[in-house]
Design brief:
By secondary structure, the protein is of the alpha/beta class. Strands 2-1-17-16-14-3-12-13-15 form a nine-stranded mixed sheet. Strands 5-6-7-10-9-8 form a six-stranded antiparallel β-barrel. The protein has a two-stranded parallel sheet with strand order 4-11. The radius of gyration is 20 Å and the shape is globular.
Length: 341
């Protein structure tokens, strides 16, 4: 399977740089995964495509302001650090720019010294383990000093950092937003519940692997980065009941999808559990849990396009993407949505 099989042409001007003032005003393309037929609606219309008894699965992770700007202690040179994974209480796996000269022992200062860090090890793909030193609560310091880690294709400054956060975000830990969820408002979620849809929440802390390109020509040689997930018993029970009763399980986002498909047994049933997943879903994969998916439009040749293609078929997906380009849909994190049914 060649990575070029998942390429499509995207004009730069269709990459959404700013969120809409009204989250639910995004456009919605509905794709019939069996026939490839499409419909064009507003995201608010999602309610009309959901049925009483459907189980809608949300990823309640919360994005941390994981981008820190500081300077090297010895030279005063500027440095940018992106927090990826917490390894221990004060030790994080990070991406450092520029990283070449940041060997073990290199020290950094942030915010006039209220936070300092030292590289203790260079790990996979050149990431650095950094031990941080501070007084007080790390999360409070991060809230003061950190910026939201927007994807590299977004060049505009985000005025309100809550707009890169879902309205149901609960648990700190992500270096990127589960962007399919950005379209939901509290009012829309209430409307969905009142329509008889069951809502379950899972957690997957999104890592930088979301943005990493597939560098291998052969898709099957690509290695996914591990991400932490957690499923509580209440969510497992809701999803299991829906499956037993033949009701649809609908994932909001590729992160919810990866959580469910990682945690399920061979029959598609779940128990309360947590762990790390490196699941890579591409065409040929047999889904065990999800029946439908709400998602955004993803980068060409990305693992996310491959996941969507596994669910709806590569030809259907690429045809729908070409249609979205013609219809001038907005793409990527702050862009429009797609419902694969």
């Amino acid at each position: 399977m060649d990575v070029k099989d998942f390429y499509y042409e995207l004009p730069q001007e269709l990459i959404a740089q700013d969120p809409l003032s009204d989250r639910a005003a995004s456009r919605l393309m509905v794709l019939d995964k069996k026939t490839g037929e499409t419909q064009h609606r507003s995201f608010r219309d999602i309610v009309t495509y959901l049925k009483p008894g459907d189980c809608l699965v949300l990823n309640n992770t919360k994005v941390i302001p994981a981008r820190l700007f500081g300077r090297k202690e010895d030279t005063g040179a500027n440095v940018e650090i992106l927090l990826l994974k917490r390894k221990e209480e004060r030790i994080w796996e990070t991406l450092v720019k520029p990283g070449k000269k940041c060997r073990p022992g290199a020290r950094f200062v942030f915010g006039n010294g209220i936070l300092t860090g030292e590289v203790i090890e260079v790990v996979e793909e050149g990431n650095r383990l950094i031990r941080f030193t501070y007084q007080g609560i790390f999360e409070e310091i991060l809230d003061r000093l950190g910026q939201m880690p927007l994807p590299p294709y977004i060049t505009h400054r985000l005025e309100d950092k809550n707009r890169y956060q879902t309205v149901y975000a609960k648990y700190d830990g992500s270096a990127a937003a589960p962007t399919a969820g950005l379209h939901f408002t509290p009012e829309l979620l209430l409307q969905i519940k009142e329509a008889g849809v069951d809502i379950a929440e899972v957690t997957l802390h999104v890592g930088l692997g979301t943005f990493r390109p597939v560098k291998e020509t052969d898709v099957l040689k690509h290695h996914m980065h591990s991400e932490f997930y957690r499923i509580e018993q209440e969510a497992a029970d809701k999803i299991n009941r829906a499956k037993k009763e033949g009701r649809r399980v609908i994932a909001v986002g590729t992160t919810s999808t990866r959580t469910l498909e990682s945690a399920a047994d061979e029959n598609g049933y779940l128990t309360a559990k947590s762990g790390w997943t490196e699941i890579f879903i591409y065409p040929g994969y047999q889904f065990k849990v999800i029946d439908a998916l709400i998602t955004n439009f993803h980068l060409p040749e990305s693992t996310l396009v491959m996941l969507v293609s596994a669910l709806a078929g590569r030809e259907h997906v690429l045809s729908a993407y070409e249609e979205a380009v013609r219809e001038k849909y907005r793409f990527f994190s702050f862009g429009d949505a797609m419902f694969l049914v």
